């Protein structure tokens, strides 16, 4: 997921996407542990997507705090 796509999401959609990506990350871990993971680069891509999503969440929280001050 690209950064511009992430910025376009609403806050509740952002949270839902984080949960979805975390579930995918867990599935990939299980596949890796059982030797069924064919595309090992997927784990890295999902991890980075989760980081992008969480960064956007924290940026929005900080912006809301500054706006409220």
Structure description:
The protein has helices at residues 3-8, 11-34, 41-68. 84% of the residues lie in helices and 0% in strands. The protein is elongated. The chain is an all-alpha fold and 69 residues long. It starts with a helix and ends with a helix. The mean pLDDT is 95. The protein has three helices and no strands. The longest helix is centred in the C-terminal third of the chain and has 28 residues, at 41-68.
Q: In brief, what are we looking at here?
A:
By secondary structure, the protein is an all-alpha fold. Helix content is 84%, strand content 0%.
Secondary-structure blueprint:
Layout: H1 3-8, H2 11-34, H3 41-68
Helix pairs in contact: 2-3
What are the secondary-structure elements, in order, as H or E?
A: HHH
Q: Helicity level, as a percent range?
A: over 70%
* Sheet/helix structural class: mainly alpha
Main sheet summary = none
List keywords for this structure.
69 residues, mainly alpha, 0% strand, elongated
